[in-house]
Task: structure prediction
Amino acid sequence: SAVADWMLAHRLKGEEYSNYAAALSSQTAEMLVENIDQIKPNMEESARFMLKALVSSGIAMSIAGSSRPASGSEHMFSHALDMIAKKPALHGMQCGVGTILMLYLHGLDWRRVKDALKVVHAPVTAKALGVSKDEVLKALTYAHKIRPERYTILGNGISPKIAQKAAKDTGVI
Result:
C-alpha cells in the first residue's frame, strides 16, 4: 500500500517518484506474499529470507531518498493506534492490519495480504491486535494527521462511515 500511496501522491500532488525504487519495493512485497509459507519460527532460512527483504526495502528507500517506497498510510494508521489505543500492539502487527485496510481503500487485493498474514499467524483483526473496534475506527479517521505533508489514500481524512465500512468489509472489526 505504501507504493500505491506514493504513486497517488505523484499523480495528484506532483510528488517526486522513482519507478525503480517503487518497482523494487513492490517486487519485495510480492516476493514475501508469494513465499509466505517459507517463513517459519526458528528456521535459519526464514531469517535469511526476511533479511533479504529488509535489505531490499532499505535499498529502495535509499534510491528514493525517503521512506516513501516502504512507509505510507499503513504506517500512519499504526502510529495513530499507538496514540489512541490503551494498549497498542507491536508496530509491524499494526502495519499488517493497516495494510489490509489501506489496500481496501485503494481498491487493491487486500484479501491476498490478509491470507498471507494468516499463514504466519499474524493478527488480521482488531481483537487479535488486542485493540477495540472504536480504537481502530478512531485511528483510521485520525491517521492522516500523523504526517500531513505526506499525501496518501487517506487524503485530508476519511469519514467515520467510510472507516467503519472499510473495517467491516475487511473483517478487521
Remarks:
- The chain has a mean pLDDT of 96.
- Residues 75 and 146 are 9 Å apart (CA to CA).
- The radius of gyration is 16 Å.
- Residues 44-64 form the longest helix (21 residues).
